[in-house]
Amino acid sequence: MEALLNEIKTRCAALADEPRRLFHGRGQTVPGFEHLVIDWYPPVVLVTLYRPVEQPILEDLKQHLEEQVCQKLAGIVVQDRSQRDEEPKILDGSCPSELAIREAGLNYLVRPLASQNIGFFPDMKPGRQLIRQIAREKKVLNLFAYTCSFSVAAIAGGAAHVTNLDINENLLARGRENHRLNDHDLRRVAFMPHNLFKSFGRLKKNKPYDLVVIDPPYQQGRNFRANRDWPKIMRHLPELVTPGGEIVAAVSAPELGRTFLRQQFSEYLPQADLVAELTGGDSFPEADPDKGLHIQHYRL
């Protein structure tokens, strides 16, 4: 427990008004707490559990977070993902159903009391920075768009147009709100609530794209399974991406890693050159460097 509390104290020492991971248990660097993740979404702390935790441990966490975050803290929410259909609970203070957070000058909506999809992944900050840097005047295709944070970053970076595709129409609606929150011109943004694997024909009518972003979940029911479906995506990329175009691909699951992603490109798109490789950064330490989030930037 002491190692956990010390880690939180270190992260809180440099706490700002931007989202940040306070403890990354899934990186397996603190034995005994691999099931615990703690995030700061100002002014709320979100504690995510991947297996049940005894109440005394939660009380210790609550006290420690109150001491470290102090005046900035409005509430602490616990989301127990080990319990199916379990609603998040407010452990301390209060929490709105929706709040706007700010990262690198851009605004995003999150829902801390949502049972699963709060709407934002803090570990993707390096990816959003990369997209913002390389998107200028590009026609962008954002696959598995979720709530469109990559799209927000692309438009902020001067992209000519972004097409967002995700099977979940409600998530895309939240993505539209993210763009509105940043006063973006929605004429430069399209939203396609479709299954990717039934939509390649439609996408190809609007090709080519200068930049394609691929950030799928590890598994999404019957709709997506990494080992089965990544090769399908890879086979279509040469028909979607303009010559000299760019691809930003990401995996984030304990079962996968950078080796998996490199193998996909080596086997199905060997002509693509690896430009850069990113991780979530220092706030997301991993005992095994191959695991965790990996973002790879390729150029054809």
Name the features:
Transcription Regulator spoIIAA, alpha/beta, Rossmann fold, seven-stranded mixed beta sheet, five-stranded mixed beta sheet, 300 residues
Q: In whole angstroms, how far apart are the ends? A: 48 Å
CATH C-level category of the largest domain: Alpha Beta
Report the β-strand fraction as a percent range.
25-35%
State the order of secondary-structure elements, H for helix, E for strand.
HEEEHEEEEHEHEHEHEEEHEHEE
Unreliable spans: none
Which bin fits the share of residues in helices?
25-40%
Count of β-strands: 16
Major sheet attributes: 7 strands, mixed
- Cα Rg: 19 Å
How many helix segments? Answer: 8
Describe the structure.
- The chain has helices at residues 2-13, 55-69, 125-134, 149-156, 169-181, 200-205, 226-240, 258-268; strands at 20-24, 36-41, 44-49, 75-80, 89-93, 99-103, 106-110, 139-143, 161-165, 189-192, 209-214, 219-220, 224-225, 241-252, 273-278, 293-299.
- By secondary structure, it is α/β, with parallel strands linked by helices.
- It has 2 domains: 2-110, RNA methyltransferase domain (HRMD) like (Transcription Regulator spoIIAA), CATH 3.30.750.80; 122-299, Vaccinia Virus protein VP39 (Rossmann fold).
- The protein has a 7-stranded mixed beta sheet with strand order 10-9-8-11-14-16-15, sandwiched between helices.
- The radius of gyration is 19 Å and the shape is globular.
- 39% of the residues are buried.
